[in-house]
Amino acid sequence: MYEQIAKNKAKSVIIIIGFVAFITVIGFVLGYFIDYENSIIFMIFALIIAAISSFSGYYYSDKMVLGLTGARPLSREENPRAYYMVEGLSIAAGIPTPKIYVISDKGMNAFATGRNPQNGVIVLTEGLLENLNDEELKGVISHELAHIKNYDILLGTIVAIFVGMISIISNIALRSFFFRGGKSKSNEKSGGGILSLIFLLLGILLIIFSPLIATIIRLAISRNREFLADSTGVLISRYPAGLASALKKISESSKVRTANNATAHLFIANPFGSKTKSFFSNLFSTHPPVEERIKRLESMSLGVGV
Amino acid sequence: MATGVFIFLAVLVGLIIIAIFVTIGMYNSIVSLRNKVDNAWHQIDVQLRKRYDLIPNLVETVKGYAKHERETLESVINARKIGIDAQTVKEQAKAENMITGALKSLFALAENYPDLKADQHFLKLMDQLNGIESNIAYARQFYNDMVMKFNTKIQTFPGNIFAKIFNFTQKDYFEIEEPEARKPVEVKF
Q1: Which of B43, B132, B135, B138 to probe the A interface (max A CBs under 10 A)?
Q2: At the N or C end, where does chain B have fewer CB atoms within 10 A?
Q3: Residue B17 sits in which domain range?
């Protein structure tokens, strides 16, 4: 548990540094083409933007994610059942009670965000609150509390913001390449031809592959994490069958409309629905197959233990 | 010859430094676990206090409908008093078992008074009591988890040596009699 927390914090730092470096390089390459003499200025500009966005990413990423997914705060009067459960289970998990948000969507899913347990937020969809019984909802909430306790939320939320930003930047960059591409070639001195060709290729590759890189990072951090949160969650709820049955229901439900590529890995189960079973979608799936998770949960028997 | 003595001294000093660091590390980790146990106990205490605050209110409400059921009412009040006065974890657990038992007979008694059962105030108190009781169960779960970690730390090697040196003793589990509340779970990672 404690190694997991330390690992997550370390990974978050590495990802922030990597992101800043990545944006700086992109800035330099971009600057090289748009304005050859002033490429350093472009780079510094990119560095500043990257630094500011990582800083705000650390402090405000949870709010950005909540905004992106269209979540709103849930009041106690509106759903006392959810409040009782979240309060009770956070006592069992030994963390402060997180804020509760809800997404007005009939699809069933849930995620957690925030930068640490003191600023944790748990987000549930309306469909989830309506369709799960007490034991199932407790299972889902425990799973999310496990993410909060493990600091998965810090890493996951930062990655969500960065993936979103990288895809925006690569879109802008791709467009500016098409816009400037022809002109810069005619302006060049003959000596810099090969070098600039290399840079051009590198730049295009970088920009084309940046969403792919982002996806790979996302995959690397999220798959195992779900198994771990399942087992930590069961330690909180003490009832593996609840979560197993909830996962079954969630996987059969419709998709969540406000989920997108940047936020998909945050959810408890794939928010796009697990119906698509092609090789490609499996390869890029941010979540382990639900069947596998249920199998593992069912193997956690009620026996001698804590 | 002089170099031999020097190496010997250097190794000795090195070993002493390592031993000091290991001791500091072990001591700190045991203390931090002990603080976690204390904090977990505090969480239970918060919930227990909520229940103590609610009981007089409940008793008054029941009295309004069932004045002559003095025995049951008094047993609830007495159990509460014992709970408030409890000093150790074991005493507290015993008192809580008494309170839970007394409350059970109070609710059984309420079955005989349809007016009481329909009383809005009574229903609201019942609802709150249920919420508090489930929170007590959760807090107890967390506390017992922490106690287990602490006890394991000071019973296993090398923690047991340091526990002896610094005089750390085992903590008591907060145990409750209900058999269904004690269902343990085994989790494989």
Answers
A1: B138
A2: N
A3: 2-182
